[in-house]
Every structure is written in structure tokens, then in C-alpha cells.
Sequence to fold (305 residues):
Amino acid sequence: MDITRMREFQRFACSLNFTQASIELNLSQSNLSKHIRSIELELGCDLIDRGTRISLTPAGNHFLSRTSHILNIYDSLLEECKVIKNSKAELVFQDPHIVDEATEAFCQMAEDFHQHAPSVPIRFSRIRKNSLENTLIKHGMDVALAYDGGDIQSVIQKYESNGFFAKYLASEQAIIWCDNDSELAEKSLLTVSDLKGVPVMAQSREYDPCREALLTTCADYGFKPDLCFCQADIFIDFLYAEGHGGVYFLPESYASDRRLKIKRNRSFLRFKDGDVKIHVFAVMCQPENESQKLFYDFLFGHSSK
Fold:
């Protein structure tokens, strides 16, 4: 049934006067009468007693009551849709897997953007086993943290060549965390080449933030690391894994993490080469909706087209 016809009947019922109602509705009296008659034909009953004194029939009174309820719901629905249309899409940020300097920079960036664009809702979500790129493209993540090694500008160009935008956030020296009885523990300082043939721990169930940095770093030295995969559901369980004999490639800030320092059977080792660093970037896809475009403009300091 046409909503407009309902409104016309409601207006007529207020005065029970075709002349007055037609003037208020800016309709001819004959058209108003035809519209109400069409409702009656659709319902199969009379809504108006057209006797000497016009009045609503019992069906007309019931129809008026239900119509008022329907129109109130319809009007509320229109307003809700307008609010949704004018609101901005939610931005989903990666919930960081590890706690380091980059995490602080990433969360500060999200907080600064919220102050810059308070109308844009923000939510944090965890990357599971999917790769960072797959999560951004297929799983509804708008902004993620990427850990990488090598030259900063080269990393940015690598992401751009794959259709992403990367913003450098922070860098930390890389360190190795290993069992005290490991051969590496006998060295006071390491070189990247010392990792050749040494199993390096990697997560298989969860997204592993440092794996890409490890792979890039070893590639710069001409070899691939031997990855030892650990099935752990959360990162701290991965760090506490026992019996694998592998070493961990981590940001230096982990050397002060109390959760790791209490593992007395493990030591932190540093590299001789001060250029063995883990770089961290905020990565996003090509902006499509208004919220993504606002964040892109905020992050890179210019207007997106």
C-alpha cells in the first residue's frame, strides 16, 4: 500500500472533511476521494460512512490506529537511514601482537586521528593466521602494523608496488632471545650470518609480526633462515614455547619486558652491526570510503582524490 495514500487518509480522518483535507494536502477533492476509495478497494471494506454525517466505520477507526503506528515507524526509519547515510564508516586498526616502541607510536597515531576526526568510529581487531596483505584486502582491516628489515624507503616502495600505502613509524635494534645452552649464547655479540643453520622460531597459527623483518634481514646477507614453526594461539604462548631449541628474533624493547626477563634459562643477545634493525610501518589499502580517505589525508599530509 502506498505510504502517501496512508498519509492522505490520516489527514482526512483528522477533520472528516474532504474540502478541508484536500486543501491541506494540495489535492483536488475528487482525487482525494478516489485515493481513499482505492484503499477501501484494496482492503475490501469501507473505511468511511458516507451518510448524512461523514464518520469512520469501525474498520476505518482500526485502520487509522494501525496506519498512525506504521507511519511513525516509517518516519523513524527514514531518520535512521539519514543518520547512517551521513555517518562515517568505522575504521578498523590492527590490535598489536607485541608491545614495543612501534606499538606506542601506532596507538598514539590512532588517538591523534580520533582527535582530528572524532566523528569517525575506531575499533581494534586482531590479525589471525592470515598474512597482513590478505587481512587488509579480504578481512576488513583498514590499518595494520608491518614489521620489516632493510632500507626504509625500499620497504615503502615494496608495499606501494603491491598496491598498499606505508607510513614509517619507528625502528628498533633487533636482538636474539635464546636458551642459555644454545651455541649462540656463547657469543658476546652476533652477526646476522651467525643465524645460518640455526632454527628461528615462527608462529604458524597466528600472524607473526617479526617474520618479514627476519626474512628481509637474512636475504640482505644472502641466505634464508631456518624457520621453526610453533603452534601457539597467542603471542605470549609462542614466546614461552619450550622444547623447540629455536631462537627468537625480536625488537630490542623486549629485553626490558618483565614477562621475558623472568625466564632465567634464556638470554638476550645483540648484534655487532648496529644496522640490524626492525622497522615498523602503518600500512593501508587504497582509500575507498570517506573514513579511509580522511585517515589517508591525516597519515600522509595531503588530500586524496
The first strand starts at residue 48 and ends at 49. The first helix runs from residue 3 to 15. The domain at 3-86 is CATH 1.10.10.10 (Arc Repressor Mutant, subunit A). The CA atoms of residues 166 and 213 lie 15 Å apart.
